[in-house]
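Appendix B. Chain record.
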Amino acid sequence: MTSNQLSFAGAALSLAVLYLNLRPWWKGGRNPKDLLPFGGSALLGALSTVCTGGLLGWLAGCSAQSANTAGYKAVPGATGTQDTGLARGSLGQLTPEGGVVVFLLTIVVAAAWKAAGKQDRRRMAGGAFCGATLCFTAGVAGMLGGLPDAANNLGDGLKAALEGQGIL
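Structure tokens predicted for this chain:
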């Protein structure tokens, strides 16, 4: 299995982290604002999977490897069954303009991390983990396939605005 392929047990671990992060929100007031720490980091984690050759892409691959390693121990240890791989997915490609958007998102998430308390930092770590690992599956990558295009288009608009195109 490659570093950017998630096993079924690794996906189960990611889904467990997702559940443990969303359950308190669901049981609580269901305020959308409470999803920001997890959701913003999950968005960054998902976009990290298309950052090939960069630090974010490497970290996303490490997330999948750690999910697989822990899943290989946890699932068979709990159930006695063996694991299988999942169909590999990919969100697509990032343009240089989209890369700028992902970089700026990284800065926003890093600043939020620095200002966050212990509980929100756990949620942010869980979000980045789930976003990165689950986007290596064909199903989640298929559902979020427009994400890199959105970043690319936003980057194109930002570049055009900074170059003074289409302002007047």
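Further analysis of this model is presented in Appendix C.
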